[in-house]
Records
---
Amino acid sequence: MSRREDIDVRTITETEIPAWIRALNTGFLRSPAVSDEEITNRGSSILLERTLGAFDTDHPHSRLRSTGGTPIVATFRSFPQQLTPVGGTPVPADAITNVSVNPTHRRRGLLTRMMATDLTAAKDRGDVVATLIAAEYPIYGRYGFGQATTATEWTIDVSRSGLDPRWSGPTDGARIDLVDGEEVRELGPDLHERLRRTQPGAVSRDERWWQINTGVLSLSGDPWKEPFYAVYRSATGEVEGLVSYESDDNWGDAKQPLNTAEVNWLITVTPAAERALWRYLCSIDWIAHVKTGWRAPDDLLPHFLPDPRAARITIQADWLWVRILDVVRALEARTYAGSGTLVLDVTDGDGLSAGRYRLEAGPDGATCAPTTTAADLTLDVGELAALWLGDESAVRLTALGRVHEEREGAAVVADALLRTSRRPWCPDIF
Ligand SMILES: CC(C)(COP(=O)(O)OP(=O)(O)OC[C@H]1O[C@@H](n2cnc3c(N)ncnc32)[C@H](O)[C@@H]1OP(=O)(O)O)[C@@H](O)C(=O)NCCC(=O)NCCS
């Protein structure tokens, strides 16, 4: 086993990209083979100064070694992102992705070293938070991340929904049309911008997102299977919703179509568009079930159906994890349900955000500053992240022993300020 000092954690160079992708594929249990297309397409998103590799300088047998290289045994990458807090003023985020450690080098602290390097750089850069989607729940809490949003997937049994099967489109002048990928690339970015700027928990998307999700760019080199896309326009012609979906091919034992429509993504900016697009999906001939993809847990969907029980929760899990790097700016970036003062004693094992902060919160914004006055609540920075987007309850975390009341009733006050009437939602995976 190589010793700690034999493993360098550092940023990679351009020529090391193929080996880095090979290590990433290995860690993610994909075939390690790296195609030229993958190098070009994946490589074009890599910011070398924010892409880390762990290099085993003591690796005994390697073809790489004979060509002067050092085997890469772990990967980590981050990129700039914006995250929308409550109140809709996006903050700069350090989005973390492609985290992997080869199985031969696991549990020797490599992730810990890469994470420390990246988070320190993000804080120095002035990012307010770091974000990620976790492969497994227990990985990131130790680094100060907290579960900030939850994702829910429903499977709708169309025959039980109570919807009128004769429906053939909106009757109020709005319309739904099938479009191709090119039109999605034209219409999608503006629609998504409108959504994500007001949706707590939503993150920015770059042009690549639309290219990858319409088949222009393939990261894996796998053949692209074009999905269906439908756009909703209001009676005044405004684009208010877009859905990408696929169907399987299932004819059951009695030669009856039993297809499932699987939604890749569905974004809307009005409840009318949301209702119409779900209605559309449930009206497609042959479709017996609709899988909704990752939605907010309080999505309106079940209640668009006369029988909401026809929408069964099939997945419910943590989704966006947030690590607060700058408590003052994070708390000042959002608005609050009411007016009030809260003094928070924030602990942080990594020392990045620890301190006692006084928050003067209000519906139009807040001021926050370090203070020496007595604390109302003591909590870890990860618990603050869970509360920050409004999804978690301070009362619940107090009951769990994860938040401590220094003043009786402070958790109720915190909930009255921090919680939101709708739950946050991050439509993206990254
Ligand atoms: C998750 C992963 C990156 C962890 O890397 P690692 O280098 O083994 O992690 P570290 O050695 O730095 O672990 C630090 C601590 O986290 C714990 N830990 C790490 N991964 C864990 C996991 N998946 N579940 C539970 N605990 C985990 C370690 O036990 C260790 O705890 P300790 O300090 O109490 O001993 C690695 O196991 C991996 O590549 N897994 C497969 C791919 C993956 O899931 N990537 C994450 C994508 S979001």
---
Amino acid sequence: MSKARSIHSKQARLEADGETHRRDCECARCDAGFSPSEREREVAGRRVAGKQGRRAAERASERRKETARLKQLELALFFQQTNARADAEVQRLRALRVQAASDRRMDEFLRLRKDGLSVELALAEVDRRFPAAGPSGADNDNGQAAAERTNA
Ligand SMILES: [Zn+2]
């Protein structure tokens, strides 16, 4: 936006702060002797410096906040990945345990059949020795191990 033109042809020459008329300003006001005093220049300079300092401090604060936010995200992602890996490992071990239990049941069934038990009796015996692991049973092999020991 251009400054409103005065009735005089000469426009005000301003300092970098956009307000203070320069020493070599030849606008009507300055020509008439109303140019800023050295004191006013000093105050204006300090005001600009203060404003720049505050802006720099705000930018630094924003950068710190952004850095902290990114670190938080990174940390959250790290834990998320760690949890996902741990969950996958638990799933894998559960599947292995289910497979192992199934293998034990099959081994026992075949052994009992070889010993001459009928299919029905062998199945009943396997069920008695290896109670089918329910959802809670799969998470707790203490009970199963105890059952196997008492039946051995
Ligand atoms: Zn001026």
